[in-house]
Write a structure and sequence with these properties.
Helix content of chain A: 10-25%
CATH class of the largest domain in chain A: Alpha Beta
Order of helices and strands of chain B: HHHHHHHHHHHH
Number of strands of chain B: 0
Low-confidence stretches of chain A: none
Largest interface: A-B, 24 and 19 residues
CATH architecture of the largest domain in chain A: 3-Layer(aba) Sandwich
Strand content of chain A: 35-45%
CATH topology of chain B: MetI-like fold
CATH topology of the largest domain in chain A: Rossmann fold
Radius of gyration of chain B: 24 Å
Strand content of chain B: under 5%
Mean pLDDT of chain A: 90
Order of helices and strands of chain A: EEEHEEEHHHEHEHEEHHEEEEEEEEEE
Oligomer: heterodimer
Shape of chain B: globular
Number of helices of chain A: 8
CATH superfamily of the largest domain in chain A: P-loop containing nucleotide triphosphate hydrolases
CATH class of chain B: Mainly Alpha
Radius of gyration of chain A: 25 Å
Distance between the termini of chain B: 24 Å
Number of domains of chain A: 2
């Protein structure tokens, strides 16, 4: 059931098209993410949903009602800002009570609802503090409690974890998921951090140059990127220039002088068509050169370098013809930092159903 | 916070101690010689007798003919003995309060406008606010005589108020602007986002956050107005004399320095009492807000 509909929304700033004819729907109770690099239009879109900005063309429809005549203060949509934007002259309790007070609730309701909201984010003992007396994580939780206290239809989150350090961010991610599940409010999350988007979202819209490149579930986005941009932006990927040699049940791709590989079929691919073949490092197996691989796509190469990350090691392998490919190997033996050394002759291989051929 | 800050400060203070003394000694000496010492002289003067030809009568030994010498509480007795002085004090505080209020009401929208105009225009707008200072104070006050004369408003309480407000308005605009300019605009977005109307965004966010600016602006207007004698003298009638006129008259007119000193001291105490009360109220207000 669509709760928010974005219909052909366009927003220009002078000659710059910030949001370019974007349409999508967000379902009720969903954790929806707008993901993209800075300047991709995700924040402009968020500001238009919140009501701080208006589309030049198209409409934003909430629960079947066009929002164009509803100013920000009357939209049942709240925002958690990147800087939190807590009111410095108000205590935690007064901050959280603010939307209730603006909605004209009576004092008893305000008190009990505020208390419940603070309990939900485990800050019920900090109600009398001022924002400057709180840590970054605590401020974040106050902002969340304030945004959710009078149960908006939508909660917009504008890079809310950007200011936190890595450990705390991970903790807050889990807390966000729990909170969203508890209150059932639809979340629209804006971020440029792809790992965060994958971990949190039910669905992700990847934006670039004001358009949506792909809208999908995290695992499909990662596993089946539809464009070169999406493949590159989400996760690590090997990208090889390729030309379609023949089509059929599987696609046959010519990788320059390297030879031909088998790849999953792509609708509309024509022989002779040029593009890129993308494959994730963890889909590439690496073994000693002498071992024959059971997979159809295999090449010999030499280890150029490797990155030891702890749980895994990434090997960078030089293939013939100047191609270079990354392969990921789990360090499954304790104390084992690497299986291969720089300069070792190795064989890389991958399955015919792995990777994808994309338009250049 | 103090623990983490004090460590590096004490380490560096040994090297910079001399520098700090050298830089702060001249202004300290200036204030001691030209403010602290004269203030103490004035305290002393308020307990003495006037000299026959002005100034002060000698503290010891015989004075000129008709002069009383030594120390006395007479000045204070005169002040407390006649309600006229207290009345003038009350009137002065009333004029100062009204002037401050009028300045605040007029300066706030101006300061807000400047603070919210594009950055490249702000300095120019501030400059325009202080531009009147480029011409002489008395010229500007006399100009009001010409303006108010035809309307039959001259030499009245209203004329005094108009002059006071006109002269002191920039002193309210500047601190208010300095404060408002620092406000984070995201806070207003947040307030609107959470359901606050334009009025509530001002009254619950902008206004309370601007209180420090209001207090410093009010102090910069209220205190000088209390001591101002030129404006009442030029624009006001004989009934519009304020404390400032009384003090000026004591020193330059009747040449009763001890009485003028006493009035000055009483004014200082009254201002301190009011400033203390305001600070106390402000602290309570912040704690509650």
């Amino acid at each position: 059931m669509a709760q928010l509909e974005i219909r052909n929304v366009t927003r220009r700033f002078g000659d710059f098209v910030a949001v370019d004819d974007v349409s999508f729907e967000i379902k009720s109770g969903e954790f929806f993410t707008l993901l993209g690099p800075s300047g991709c239009g995700k924040t402009t879109l968020l500001r238009m949903i919140a009501g701080f900005d208006l589309p030049d063309r198209g409409s934003i429809v909430l629960d079947g009602v066009d929002l164009k005549d509803t100013p920000a203060e009357r939209r049942p949509i709240h925002t958690v800002f990147q800087s939190y934007a807590l009111f410095p002259h108000m205590t935690v309790e007064q901050n959280v009570a603010f939307p209730l007070r603006m909605a004209g609730k009576d004092d008893a309701t305000i008190r009990s609802t505020t208390r419940a909201a603070l309990e939900q984010v485990k800050l019920d003992d900090k109600g009398g503090r001022y924002p400057h007396e709180l840590s970054g994580g605590q401020k974040q939780r106050v902002a969340l409690a304030r945004g959710l206290v009078n149960r908006p239809r939508l909660l917009l989150l504008d890079e809310p974890l950007g200011a936190l350090d890595a450990k705390l961010r991970e903790q807050m991610q889990l807390e966000l998921i729990r909170l969203q599940k508890d209150v059932g409010v639809t979340f629209v999350f804006v971020t440029h951090a792809q790992a965060e988007a994958l971990a949190l979202s039910h669905r992700i819209a990847v934006m670039n140059h004001g358009r949506i490149e792909q809208l999908d579930e995290p695992s499909r986005l990662y596993g089946f990127p539809k464009t070169r941009f999406v493949a590159d932006f989400i996760g690590n990927v090997n990208m090889l220039d390729a030309t379609v040699a023949s089509t059929g049940a599987t696609l046959s791709l010519a990788l320059g002088k390297l030879g031909t590989i088998a790849a999953p079929a792509k609708e509309g691919a024509q022989p002779g068509q040029q593009g890129v073949y993308v494959i994730r490092p963890e889909q590439v197996s690496i073994r000693a050169a002498a071992d024959a691989a059971p997979e159809p796509n295999q090449f010999e190469g030499r280890v150029y370098d490797f990155l030891y990350i702890g749980d895994v090691t990434t090997y960078i392998v030089d293939l013939a013809d100047g191609h270079r490919i990354e392969a990921l190997l789990a360090n499954s033996l304790p104390g084992r930092a690497r299986f291969f050394d720089v300069g070792d002759r190795v064989r890389v291989s991958w399955k015919a159903e792995a990777g994808a051929f994309l338009d250049a | 916070m103090s623990a983490t800050e004090s460590a590096p400060r004490s380490a560096s203070s040994q090297g910079s101690g001399l520098v700090r003394w050298l830089t702060s000694a001249p202004p300290l000496a200036f204030l001691t010689i030209f403010f602290l010492v004269p203030s103490l002289i004035m305290v002393g003067a308020s307990f003495r007798f006037p000299g026959e030809l002005g100034a002060l009568a000698p503290l010891f030994g015989p004075g000129a003919e008709g002069e009383e010498t030594g120390l006395t509480l007479e000045n204070y007795q005169v002040f407390l003995g006649d309600t006229i002085y207290v009345q003038i004090f009350v009137k002065s505080f009333g004029v100062a309060a009204l002037t401050t209020l009028a300045c605040l009401v007029m300066a706030y929208p101006v300061a807000l406008l400047i603070a919210r105009s594009p950055k490249r225009h702000r300095n120019l707008l501030v400059l325009l606010c202080v531009l009147p200072f480029a011409s002489n104070f008395l010229v500007r006050v006399y100009a009001w005589m010409i303006i108010l004369g035809p309307f039959d408003l001259l030499f009245s309480r209203l004329a005094v108020l108009v002059g006071m407000v006109y002269v002191h308005l920039p002193f309210m605009i500047l601190p208010l602007y300095t404060n408002l300019e620092k406000h984070d605009p995201t806070l207003l977005d947040a307030a609107q986002d959470l359901g606050a109307s334009a009025w509530n965004r001002f009254w619950r966010v902008t206004f309370p956050l601007s209180l420090p600016g209001i207090f410093s602006g009010s102090a910069l207007v209220f205190i000088p107005v209390l001591g101002m004698f030129a404006i009442p003298e030029i624009l006001g009638g004989k009934d519009d004399w304020l404390v400032g006129n009384l003090i000026k008259e004591s020193f330059l007119g009747t040449r009763d320095w001890p009485f003028g000193s006493m009035l000055s001291l009483m004014l200082t105490f009254a201002v301190l009492a009011i400033a203390g009360l305001a600070a106390w109220l402000a602290r309570r207000g912040v704690a509650r807000a």
